Fold:
Amino acid sequence: MEFWEKEFECQFCGNSFSQIRVFSSAIVVESRDEDLKPNYKGVNALYYQLVTCPRCYLTLFERDFGKLQIPEDKKDKVETVLNNAKKQFGELNLGKERTIDDAIAQFSIAAAIYTVIGHKRGAAEAYLKLGWLFREKENKKEELIALGKALQFFEDYFRNDIVKDEEEPMILFYLGEINKLLGNRKEAVKWFSTLSNKYRGVSSLFVKAGKERWQELRENG
Structure:
């Protein structure tokens, strides 16, 4: 068994609905790209990370859906995003058999919502994963555009918001890795150096990968 249904209540329009979730036992990471993008065997868990209200199209990560408060002064902007999404994407496929284009639609909506409400961390992650989806689709141009936006939000978040201790290694890793992917070697070295020195001896996938990238960049001059 791969899927189950979970109940949600939309914090924007008040709609109650159920949506497909993936059992953790069905998620198998077969490999990872250099930037730690997971490549799944079987169910592509990336397609099911977001929750979308089928009535108003509010789309957020599951951790935020029904919980993240939409600021009163941002509601008109959110409504504009949602109306535009309905026109652009039409009826969304929120069932079990989702395609990469279904996932791209959802992540595009989520990225726009997090952007207009000023939620930098959510926008950064939504754009990062949107970039990954374009990579799966072999659309290099759109991948780099999405990753560039992810980088801007990660940096803005790191410099101007309160970053939780448990998420800082991930943030520092992507500040280094996305800069590297975009050809900004000097910036990449700076962020990987910060990560490696600050978290020396810490057991973390991001710390380990960051140290490897830092060493590679130094060795390659």
Q: What stands out?
A: Residues 163-221 form one domain.
